[in-house]
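User: Please predict the structure of the protein below. I'd like the answer in structure-token form so I can feed it into my own downstream comparison script.

Assistant: Understood. Taking the following sequence of 74 residues as input:
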Amino acid sequence: MINAMDDLVIEALFVSDLQPSQRPTADIVRAAVDRMIERYGSAGCAAAVAAEFGDHPETAVQRMGWVRSTLAAA
């Protein structure tokens, strides 16, 4: 079961500028998540994710898959 904190972390990594090609370490992922939460807050991260799914659903689905696998590995 995913809780609200998990959702926030997922959304924050999704809206970060990290890319799969960078193969970020767990420390880099944590830092990016922290920056996005500080910058946008919970509502801002969720809104940015929703906008991406509305504007670019095909790439948003791919990015969400990368986000989830990256967080599982971290």
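That's the full token string. The chain has one domain: 4-14+24-73.
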